[in-house]
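Propose amino acids for all 177 sites.
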């Protein structure tokens, strides 16, 4: 009878120890996966917030630019920061605008302005306008409506990829003749 009891004790001790180790390992795996999921959710939340802010700022600038365009089209209360080039009429009655080395024919004015999106970007706009005087149909044509990065570009030199001391690429051999 003693032999049977020893076998039972030995088997039960090994079985209990192995299952405890597996349980601890499983719990650790679940904790690691939970932390990874939490960090991914936080990163997605931050990205969503930044994208929402960027979109909101762009459309605020776009709305401001549309308001300025409406003022230019009406010909009244044009903001001071808008560069407005009016057409010159030739002897033949042809209207011509010369603005920044570009000539436009048949329009009354050329307007150039920009609206700030954020500290690093602005919306640059260039528009041709016809006010409809002299029997012409009023209208406008957008030449440029573009988001432009305005800050100074700075190179990232924080990681030394290639130093000036190493004049040759790795794996190359210089042969002196």
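Proposal:
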């Amino acid at each position: 009878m003693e032999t049977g009891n020893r076998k039972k004790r030995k088997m039960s001790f090994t079985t209990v120890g192995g299952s405890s180790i597996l349980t601890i390992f499983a719990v650790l795996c679940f904790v690691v996966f939970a932390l990874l999921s939490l960090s991914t959710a936080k990163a997605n939340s931050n990205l969503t917030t930044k994208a929402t802010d960027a979109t909101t700022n762009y459309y605020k600038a776009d709305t401001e630019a549309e308001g300025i365009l409406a003022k230019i089209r009406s010909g009244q209360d044009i903001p001071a920061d808008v560069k407005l080039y009016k057409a010159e009429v030739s002897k033949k009655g042809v209207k011509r605008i010369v603005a920044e080395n570009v000539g436009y024919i048949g329009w009354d004015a050329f307007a150039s302005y920009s609206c700030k999106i954020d500290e690093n970007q602005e919306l640059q706009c260039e528009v041709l306008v016809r006010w409809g005087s002299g029997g012409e149909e009023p209208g406008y044509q957008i030449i440029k409506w573009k988001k432009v990065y305005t800050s100074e570009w700075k190179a990232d030199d924080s990681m030394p990829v290639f130093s000036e001391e190493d004049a040759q690429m790795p794996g190359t051999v210089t042969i002196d003749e």
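The mean pLDDT is 84. DSSP finds one helix and seven strands in the chain.
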